[in-house]
Each structure stands twice: as structure tokens, then as C-alpha cells.
Amino acid sequence: MGGSTGPVWVFAEQSDGSVLPVSLELTGQARKLADELGTSLEVIFLGDAVRENTQILFNAGADKVYLGEHPDLKFYQSERYMQIIVKLAQEHQPEIFLLGSTATGKELAPLVAAKLKTGLTAHCIDLTLDQEKRLEQIIPAYGGLISIVCPEKRPQMATIAKGVFLKPDTSEPKQGELVLLEIGNEQDQRIELLNVVYEETEGVPLESAAVVVAGGAGAKDLEGWQQIVDLADEMGAALGSTRPPVDEGWVELDRMIGQSGKMVAPELYIGVGLSGELQHMVGITGAKLMVAVNSEPKAPVFEQVDYGIVDDCREFLPVLIENIKAYKADKA
Amino acid sequence: MFKIVVLVKAVPDPKRASEIKIDPRTKTLTRADVPLVMNQLDKHAMESALALKSRVGGEITAISMGPPPAAAILKECLAMGADHGVLLSDRAFGGADAYATAYTLAKGIEKVGSADLVLCGMASSDGSTEWVGSELSVFLDLPVVTGVKEIIGSSEPWWQVKAHIDNGYRELKVKLPAVLAVTRELNTPRNISFSGIIKARKKEITVWDFDALGVPESSLGLAGSPTIISDLRVSESKREVEMIEGTREEKAEMLVQKFADAGTF
Ligand SMILES: Cc1cc2nc3c(=O)[nH]c(=O)nc-3n(C[C@H](O)[C@H](O)[C@H](O)COP(=O)(O)OP(=O)(O)OC[C@H]3O[C@@H](n4cnc5c(N)ncnc54)[C@H](O)[C@@H]3O)c2cc1C
């Protein structure tokens, strides 16, 4: 190889100008990788009049922030964002480039990777360096963990969900180099953004919930699923799910927990009628107390929780709900 | 004529996919006879193509890259109403990561001829990377919109679409030809009719191999994949479980007590 190692890059996504938590988490992890590689950590930050929000990126560990400001960059626009990042990457040859696994990150990352003719790994649950200082990208698959590397092409690119890495301490002001990008007006775009609409999600949000009740394929049908919803309601819990209930249309995709869904860390997690497949379980490794209800005594989920109950959830949940009601009435 | 290409993938039946496991000793995948089915989201892409065809006319070509048995899902597309089915199949295509897959599909689409619209499911149930639509758009030099939940087609080159973002959606205008990666909200895929099956029976699936695509072997399959699997391992579980036993009523009562002890209520 020879020469010095290229910088580690993070794409800092913003909403309304503020840097998203996932981007800060990635900046924190990227700091460690950059230190281990003996190289610098650089963050790309695009938006409209967002300069005042760059300080937090330095505080999170960035050595350098490339700031691109333009009214067109207020919201993510695939072609503009891709062109800016690709040009910058061609100039600076980053070694590693990390993006959050958000709707934006999941569209932008493959566009940039394909343009740069490099590899990209989705849904990583850990990032380390191997003996050859290659980025080891770890994902759950086939009931185990697989490591993916990108041996020759650079940058080594990955997307990571919110909650995989800890948010770095950003309370201490730190210095770094701010590089202002020249962003011109662009014609000839093939996509025009007309409007962005934010929708309120119903029910307790998963990310911040103290209690999560997650249901799986064992609910069997919509009626069985409703019992899981009822349990969540009775406990004031956020509703979560594995993938099959989403595929069946019982619940929205934004309720899915796991590798390709959300990462949560509640005080209490109750998994009902789910097998304990790793792709789901990696989403709740941060939970404090974990409980599973499953009709199959040998279900793998029973090796991954604190309390287990073997029972048919469709019989057990109504009894459990009654008991919770009775307990609450007793205390009141 | 308006040409629509729909990309479809044969995936292990998601209901049985967990039978494919890492063997802890050999660190290889245990071979299970899990049947291949059409990736669910691709059915929504197919449905969208059929609906658009009935509105603006045109011709639908379904393309899949996969082993020879993947031809069955192309037959399914024909039975749904696709005009042509093309299978990209060769040992040289095997072991492809998302990049090489998208590249191979792009070459297939180029060979079909100038597509006005390329539709694909947002993700596949087995890989779930969500990369292929975007990467392919780069190789074809077309604009892409992912997470599409509504297509307001027209006869004009600029189409309006609605697509997911986190906590909401965006409305966009996209200039055709374009790639759209679709979600389940877009529509409800039709069932295959008996007459569809009869019609599909008469149609042939076109198979293109390595020679037919005429691209260097180094850009296909494992050789053309920037990423490789460097290690497989079994993960060890981390918790010591205590089983709560007794009658149903007793179990419920004990569990509520555990919740209470943990300060849940
Ligand atoms: C690339 C990729 C990414 C993925 N990402 C995710 C992800 O982010 N999140 C996710 O959840 N999944 C994900 N999956 C899917 C994952 O592999 C599993 O298929 C899924 O988690 C299984 O869901 P389940 O446990 O509900 O269903 P199953 O594995 O089918 O388990 C159902 C369980 O219910 C039990 N049961 C049946 N009947 C009853 C009853 N009456 N009462 C009580 N229990 C009963 C059974 O014993 C069984 O253990 C992904 C898969 C792939 C390939």
C-alpha cells in the first residue's frame, strides 16, 4: 500500500439543522477507529444555514468538518448530496465512510458507493479493525455473526442504526478545522423535491420507552396480535415486533425491532410468540430485564432472557392482562 | 412504446429461512431444503407495473438474477401479466454482493433495451440491504427514488411520487427514465388467475448467461464483489434464564410480581 492512511469519514445527517443522534454516535465510534488507524476523523455536514450546529461535531471528536450550506441542501436531495460527497471523496480518498441507517442514509450510501465503485455493508452491529487494519463489519445472519470486509476498494462503507454505538460526551467544547465547501446553483437535476411531510406516530414511541412489549409470528393472526397490543396498552408500553407481523400487515414497519429495524434499550422487554432469532435480539441487547413467552420449551429465546414462561400466548395473555388489572386496582 | 422493467428475486421462503444456519464446527452454512419464493416486495413492484401498463400502455419485462430454479418466479410474473421474463443465470454470477448484483442486473436491463421505468422492491427478505435499486441507478445513470409508496404516473416525462422518509414522507417529481424502489403501501398484489397460468405456460423464459451479457468476468459474481465474508461465528447467549412455572394463573401472578419488583407500575 504505502503512504499514509486516508481519513475516517462520517456523514452527519441533520433534521431542521440539528445533527441527528445517530450521526453523533457514529462520530464517537469513528473517533476510536481513526485513533487506532492513526488518521484523522472528518465529518461531512450539509444543510441550509446550519453553521451554528457544527460545534457539536467537533465536541464529538471530529478533527475537521466539511460544511456545505445552500438553500437546496436544507432537505436531503439524492443527486445534489451524492455529487457533493463523491467529488469530495475523490479528492480526499477516505479510508472509511460511515452513514446512519436512516431513510436518507440508506438511499445515499449505495449511490455514493456505486459511484466510487466500492463496497458497502448494511445493518452493522459492530465495527472494529482486524489484524490487517481492515474495517471488520459485523452483522447477524443465519443464527450467528458474520464479519464482512472490503479488502481492496476504498472507502470501506457501512450504514449503522441509531443505538448501536453510545452517544459520545459532547459537553466539553473542542476545537477543529472548519472547511467551507463551495456549493453552486445546480441545474439539470432529474429529481425535484416538492414537499416534505412529517407524520405523528401513534402510540408510545419505541426509542424512548421504559417498557417494550414485542410480538412475533406466534400471535398467528390479527386477533392474536390484538392481545399483544392490549398487553402493551395495559402496561403503558411501546409496541414492538419481529419481522413476520410486519410482513403480515398486522403492524407498521416502524415498530420492527432488530438488525434492520430499531435498536431499543428499555428497562423491561417482554417478547411474546417470537423465537429469539438473532436478527431481532440484537435490537434489544441493551434491555435491563427481559421476559419471554413462548409455547415451545426449546425456543432459542429462552437462552436470551431473564424470565421465561412456556405457554400458548393466546391463552396466557388474557390471564396476564387480568392479573395486571387486578394488581393495579389493588394498589389504587 | 413505454417499456417497464421489473426486477424480481427468488428468496428462501421467509417462513422457513431460519432453517439455514451456521454450523458451529465447520463455520459453513448448513444446507437446508428451503424452497425459493418470489420476494414479497417484488410482487408489489410487479403489481405497480401492471397497473401502470393498463393506464399508459406498454410492455413489461420481468428480470431476475439467480440459479435456474428462479425461473419459476419469472413464470409467476408472466402469469400475473408480464410480457417477458428474463433470467440472468450463470455460475459466474454466483456469490455476488449487492454491488455485483446491481451491476449484473444493470447489464441485463441494458441488453433488454432502453427501459422507461425500472421498478423493484425496496428490499429483499434474505439480504435486506436495500442497496440494489440505488446502485443499479448509478450503473444505468438514471435517477432513483427509494421507499416509494405512491406513484402518480402520467404520459409526461416528469412523474410525481410519494416516498418514505423517517417519520413521514416526501413528494418528488422525477424525470423518466428512472428507477423506483417500492414499498408494500403502494398496492395490493393481485392473485394469479387460472387464465394467467394458462397464458404463462405458452411463454418462454429467456435465459442469459455470462456469454450473453458480454461483460468481463472480473466484474461479476464473487470476483466483482468489493465485499467478502471474512468470518462466520456462532454468537453465545448472554443471560441466565429462570423459568416461571405453575398453573396459568400462578404464572401470571408471579410474572406481575416480577414486573412490580422491577418498578414497572
Ligand atoms: C437480512 C435480514 C434482516 C432481518 N432483520 C430483522 C429485524 O430487524 N427484526 C426482526 O425481528 N427480524 C429480522 N429478520 C427476520 C428474522 O431472521 C426472523 O425471521 C424473525 O425475527 C422471526 O420472527 P419471529 O420470532 O416472530 O417468528 P418465528 O421465528 O417464526 O418464531 C415464532 C415463535 O412463536 C412461537 N409460537 C408459535 N405459536 C405460539 C403460541 N401460540 N404462543 C406462544 N408462542 C408461539 C414459536 O414457538 C416460535 O418460537 C431479518 C432477516 C434477514 C434475513
What does this molecule look like?
The complex is a heterodimer of chains A (332) and B (265). Chain A has 332 residues and is of the alpha/beta class. Chain A folds into two domains: 8-180, HUPs (Rossmann fold); 211-331, Rossmann fold (3-Layer(aba) Sandwich), CATH 3.40.50. In chain A, 28% of the residues lie in helices and 27% in strands. Chain A has eight helices and 18 strands. Chain A has a seven-stranded parallel sheet, with helices on both faces. In chain A, strands 15-14-16-17-18 form a five-stranded parallel sheet. With 265 residues, chain B is of the alpha/beta class. Chain B has a single domain (3-219), classed as 3-Layer(aba) Sandwich (Rossmann fold), CATH 3.40.50. Chain B has a nine-stranded mixed sheet with strand order 9-8-7-10-6-1-4-5-11. A two-stranded antiparallel ribbon of chain B has the order 2-3. In chain B, strand 4 (59-65), helix 2 and strand 5 (84-88) form a beta-alpha-beta unit. In chain B, helix 2 crosses helix 5 and helix 3 packs across helix 4 (132-140). The model of chain B has no long low-confidence stretch (mean pLDDT 93). At the A-B interface, helix 4, strand 7, strand 9, strand 10 and strand 13 of A face helix 3, helix 4, strand 7, strand 8 and strand 9 of B. Strand 10 of chain A pairs antiparallel with strand 12 of chain B. Flavin-adenine dinucleotide sits between chains A (216-218, 242-244, 256-261, 273-275, 277, 279-280, 294-296, 299, 312-314) and B (18, 126-128).
